[in-house]
Design goal:
With about 475 residues, the protein is α+β, with helices and mostly antiparallel strands. It is about 65% helix and about 10% strand. The protein contains 15 helices and nine strands. A hairpin with a 2-residue loop joins strand 4 (about 285) and strand 5. The protein is elongated. About 25% of the residues are buried.
Length: about 475
């Protein structure tokens, strides 16, 4: 009985083992379900699957395991990197603390010093670059200017006589002075009342001086007196007759001079009233320079400059000839002569381009066209050339004093000399106070302040001199 019981127990164990193996196999390989209550003898023989059918599953398991291993390795490396980052940060903080202890400076203070050093270096580089650009620009500008102006000067030669506010009439004998004065001064009073000019009769031998700010009136007075001297009859009635005769003759002469100026400047189609005003400029001077001759010269210069620069020579020539025409009526109309002239040009049919260039030649309005800039440059060139204009001693001294004061108020300046009638300023600086770069900046600042505060024709050269070199800047 014991043997039978043991055999039954073994059979039950075999059945249970077979069922468990079938369940495991079906879950792992997706095979068919095995019946639980099947006797051992009726169980089919389960054959092992072929080797090639298990290969894809094994490869998938291997790949999954490899991916898992790589993920674990990456996690470990990331943890190691975090530790290294933390260690580097700690080392950096420790290094900063060590540097602060060694240098005696905090990180913020060291940063400020570094920024200051970088700023100074940037200023040094900027000054050097400014000097380089200025030198290149100056060379190119001088080359082009020499080319344009040389052509213009070769084609133009003009001379002007310095004129003042007095005219002199020569007398054949000194006894004529008494006849001009008349009984109780009635003749000279009649002359002054009619002409509006002062007749100065003094001890000057053989001459009568006529003084007046209006050149046209002074010319009428001169012609009137010369006619009276030729006629020999000097009394109030004859004075009045000769005055109106001289006035009529001068008006005709003014028109002729205006027409001659238009012809010389090469301008056509000018309104008769503008021609008459041009002729009146023959008796007007500016700093000793005859305004009509100046206008003709500016017209020629502007035309040549416009041709060289590809602008409208016709507009530039016309605007330059008429640019000072407002001076012919400034005794009668209030306002700057440039604006007055522009309004007159519009009134008598000139184009807006011409009127604008006339108004802009003294910056009463901002130049908007290249012709306006050309007229402005030609006007300055005509007025600034040597011998063109004169100025009083007081104005000359004030100009030099103002130039020297502008340069003296800068830090590091030792001495200042205004030379060449105020067209050049030489600035002597303290040797240890200013270096080459600062000298470049100083010359630029002085030139800019002169341009801002003073009015001057032409160009002023500022030369800053120190031990090592001289720095020039023209403005």
């Amino acid at each position: 009985m014991e043997i039978i019981g043991a055999a039954a127990l073994i059979a039950v164990g075999i059945v249970v083992a077979a069922i468990v193996a079938a369940i495991i196999y079906s879950r792992t390989h997706g095979t068919r379900t095995v019946a639980v209550a099947t006797p051992v003898s009726s169980l089919p023989v389960v054959e092992a699957p072929p080797a090639n059918s298990r290969r894809p599953d094994a490869e998938l398991l291997e790949r999954t395991a490899a991916v898992t291993r790589r993920e674990e390795a990456l996690v470990r490396k990331e943890a190691e990197l975090d530790k290294e980052r933390s260690a580097i940060s700690d080392s950096r903080q420790e290094l900063e603390r060590s540097l602060e202890q060694i240098s005696g400076l905090s990180a913020g203070r060291a940063k400020q010093l570094l920024l200051k050093e970088v700023e100074e270096q940037a200023k040094h580089d900027a000054a050097r670059r400014i000097r380089q650009i200025e030198e290149e620009t100056k060379r190119e500008a001088e080359r082009r200017v020499r080319n344009i102006l040389s052509v213009c000067m070769q084609r133009l030669a003009a001379g002007h006589a310095a004129e003042t506010t007095v005219s002199v009439v020569q007398l054949s004998a000194d006894d004529m002075k008494g006849r001009i004065i008349g009984r109780e001064g009635r003749n000279i009073r009649a002359l002054e009342n009619l002409t509006g000019v002062d007749f100065i009769i003094d001890d000057t031998p053989g001459a009568v001086v006529l003084s007046g700010f209006d050149g046209v009136r002074r010319e009428i007075a001169r012609l009137t007196l010369e006619k009276l001297l030729q006629d020999g009859r000097i009394h109030p009635a004859r004075i009045e007759e000769m005055y109106y005769q001289a006035k009529s003759e001068l008006e005709s002469h003014i028109v002729e001079m205006g027409e001659q100026a238009v012809f010389e400047a090469g301008v056509q189609g000018v309104h008769p009233e503008l021609i008459k005003l041009l002729g009146r400029l023959r008796f007007r001077t500016s700093y000793g320079q005859n305004v009509l001759a100046h206008s003709i010269e500016v017209s020629r210069l502007a035309a040549m400059m416009a041709e060289e620069l590809g602008a409208s020579a016709r507009t530039a020539r016309r605007a330059a000839l008429l640019h000072d025409i407002g001076k012919a009526v400034t005794h009668e109309v209030e306002g700057p002569h440039a604006l007055v002239g522009g309004e007159l040009a519009r009134k008598y049919g000139e184009s807006e381009a011409v009127a604008h260039a006339m108004e802009a030649h003294h910056n009463e309005v901002e130049p908007q066209t290249i012709e306006a800039v050309i007229v402005q440059a030609a006007d300055a060139l005509s007025g600034a050339r040597p011998g063109a204009r004169g100025e009083s001693l007081e104005q000359y001294v004030k100009r030099l004093r103002d130039l020297e004061q502008i340069a003296t108020r800068h830090k590091g300046v030792d001495k200042v000399y205004a030379m060449q009638a105020g067209r050049e300023i030489r600035v002597m600086v303290a040797p240890g106070a200013i270096d080459d770069d600062a000298a470049t900046a100083l010359s630029w600042e002085i030139a800019r302040e002169i341009e801002k505060e003073l009015e001057y024709p032409g160009q002023i050269k500022v030369t800053v001199i120190r031990e090592s070199r001289a720095v020039e800047y023209a403005r």
